[in-house]
Amino acid sequence: MVKGGKAPKGKKITLNVAKNCVKITFDGRKRLDLSKMGITNFPKCILRLTDVDELDLSRNMIRKIPESISKFQNLRWLDLHSNYIDKLPESIGQMTTLLYLNVSNNRLTTNGLPVELNQLKNIRTLNLGLNHLDSVPTTLGALKELHEVGLHDNLLTSIPNSISKLPKLKKLNIKRNPFPKTEESDIFLDTIKRLDNLYLVEDKDLCSNCLKKCQQARDKLNKIKNMATATPRKAIFSNLVSPNSMAKDSQEDWRIRSTSL
């Protein structure tokens, strides 16, 4: 995870630089990719490029997202992961075309999540993992189109029923949270029975320690699943010639006695 400290002087993004970072995706979408550029402040010049469909500001050192981000009214995909963000703007609720929002690996607290998030009625993927959330707003249960939710590596002690029972939810990652043991057991069983694990941060985006923890947790889960699905071993009775040999011998004795009567 990104480390704290005094904000370094970041790279200044000009409009020309931003324009050169606009690419066309394989499916014909316009993506503005400003990831891994050492940016410390949200570049206001990109507000003149609000016709893009996708915006990637991940892996920078941005501390604040301005309310003006809502000017991206056509945005379907927003990636802000691995920055220093501790609060999302209320205006994010106006970005109703969003299908994908990744704000993992930041400094978000529960108070930093605006109620307006529940206005993102079309969102399908939401990653809030690797933050400082101690609870999940129950209002997120209003996002009925959610397919994937990342809540891993936070400070959560419970998951609202409104989240775990979302009608279209397919993937939920709640690993490495300080759940009470009984509740953790219940949630763990549910994730095995009904849901798959969700990893929205790619391996290359994690530091070596975080990657090692994720890999160890994944290996442990796979081991448990393999044990649960393994075929039970048959009991071995070394004293028996065949499974029913004693029964067969008893039947023979009974038949001999019966015929001799």
Notes on the structure:
The chain has a domain at 31-173: Leucine-rich repeat, LRR (right-handed beta-alpha superhelix) (Alpha-Beta Horseshoe). It is 23% helix and 10% strand. The protein has five helices and eight strands; from the N terminus they run αβββββββαβααα. The protein has 261 residues and is an alpha/beta fold. Mean pLDDT is 81; it is low at 192-199 and 231-261. The chain has helices at 15-20, 161-164, 181-193, 208-229, 245-260; strands at residues 22-24, 30-33, 54-56, 77-79, 100-102, 125-127, 148-150, 171-173. Strands 1-2-3-4-5-6-7-8 form an eight-stranded mixed sheet.
Describe, in short, the structure shown.
This protein has helices spanning about 15-20, 160-165, 180-195, 210-230, 245-260; strands at about 20-25, 30-35, 55, 75-80, 100, 125, 150, 170-175.
Instruction: Give the proportion of residues in helices.
Output: 10-25%
Derived structural class: alpha/beta
Radius of gyration using CA atoms only: 27 Å
Mean pLDDT: 81
Number of helices, where a helix is a run of at least 4 consecutive DSSP H or I residues: 5
* Binned strand content: 5-15%
Cα(first) to Cα(last) distance is 88 Å
What is the CATH topology classification name of the domain at 31-173? Leucine-rich repeat, LRR (right-handed beta-alpha superhelix)
CATH structural class of the domain at 31-173: Alpha Beta
The strand order across the widest sheet is 1-2-3-4-5-6-7-8
